[in-house]
Amino acid sequence: MTMAETGTRSCSDPVILNQWHAVADLNEIRRGPLRTLLLGAPLTCWIDDDGTARARTESGGELEVRTDYGYLWTTLGEPDGGVFAVPETYEDDRRTLNALTVGIQVSAPRAVENFLDMAHFPYVHAGVLGEEPHTEVAEYRVEERDGELWAVDCVFYQPRAAAASSQAVLAEYIYRVPHPYSAMLYKSSPSDADRMDAIGIFIHPLTDTRIRAHLFLSVLDQVSADQQIRRFQQEVIAQDKPILENQHPKLLPLDPRAETPIRADRSAIAYRRWLSRLGVTYGVIPALEAERVGGESGALWQR
Ligand SMILES: [Fe+2]
Question: What is the mean predicted confidence (pLDDT) over 50-75?
Fold first, then answer.
């Protein structure tokens, strides 16, 4: 199977077609088959009687499948290798789980960019991930490592950084973007001063403007119940969802002049540049096109 033989905005972007996409939490499809879309193409995924995860297109084509980190990953193209590594998941004192899967009416890159953005914490997650007057985003470094985008040395004042938090902290953050539609965040753990909790957002792109976001956790918390850990992430995402759904355009503009930053969102700019360099065209407004459509001022895309 190459591309979807379907009507609705099917994907012709080889960079995105040739990725593994996290389509379902394995626990979700243990309860029954899931009929869904991937990049506009209808597909079904399920767990066989012998426990094998499977996926096929509407026309019956069997798709390749991976089951890393508790998800069913599949592809409409030919990925170069397996799903990106998350080495923390091999540390057996961590708790690794899908905190939640949530449908959001937005493009995958908008959701990833929001995940990378610390500046919104005091406003959108007040009293949890941030708090006024601690609104300043301190300088941090953005770099490329082995083709991945990393933001390091990030710190942010957080009243309640995690489910296990008992006090406000200056939380240390590291962001890692190993995949155009997935990102990891490592943050100082309230449970272990020397190690970091790992949190991932793995996007299932239904179409270019509709996603399901899987919130993946690999945390050092041995105390909180699964339900408490999940509820914390659910509360955070419930605050992000309406903000994301109100973003216009839903596609992420890659033109550096679009949406003139009102604050120092360095990682957002780096992420947009990185997507441009990869040649991603699905879920975004490519830089050249934005220039053509937006005219000399690019005013069409400004907030
Ligand atoms: Fe947020």
Answer: 97
**pLDDT tens digits for range 88-120:** 999 999 999 999 999 999 999 999 999 999 889
Cα–Cα dist 138/266, whole Å: 11
Centre of ligand 1 to C-alpha 188, Å, is: 17
Give pLDDT, residue 257.
78
Residue identified by tokens 């997935």 is 182
CA of 73 from ligand 1 middle (Å) equals: 25
Ligand 1 midpoint to CA 160 (Å): 14
The CATH homologous superfamily for domain 85-242 is Naphthalene 1,2-dioxygenase Alpha Subunit; Chain A, domain 1 (3.90.380.10)
| Residue 14 CA: distances (Å) to CA of 189, 274, 275 | 38, 16, 13
Q: Does an H or E element contain 291, and which?
A: helix 287-294
Cα 47 to middle of ligand 1, angstroms: 33
Rounded-to-integer distance, Cα 114 and Cα 217, Å = 18
**CATH 3.20.20.10, domain 1-83, yes or no:** no
- Provide the pLDDT for residue 286: 93
Give the whole-angstrom CA distance, residue 58 versus residue 6.
9
pLDDT for the residue 5: 35
Instruction: Give the confidence band of 11 by pLDDT, cuts at 50, 70, 90.
Output: very high
Ligand 1 centroid to residue 72 C-alpha, Å: 25
Say if residues 46 and 31 touch (Cβ distance below 8 Å): no
**pTM given for the model:** 0.90
User: How many angstroms does the Cα of residue 121 sit away from the middle of ligand 1?
Assistant: 6
Quick count: other Cβ atoms within 10 Å of Cβ 60? 8
Residue found under tokens 């406003």: 123
Do β-strands 182-189 and 192-205 pair in parallel, antiparallel, or remain unpaired? Answer: antiparallel
**What was the pLDDT predicted at 31?**
95
Ion ligand 1 neighbours (CB, 5 A) are 240
What is the CA(111)–ligand 1 centre distance, in A? 9
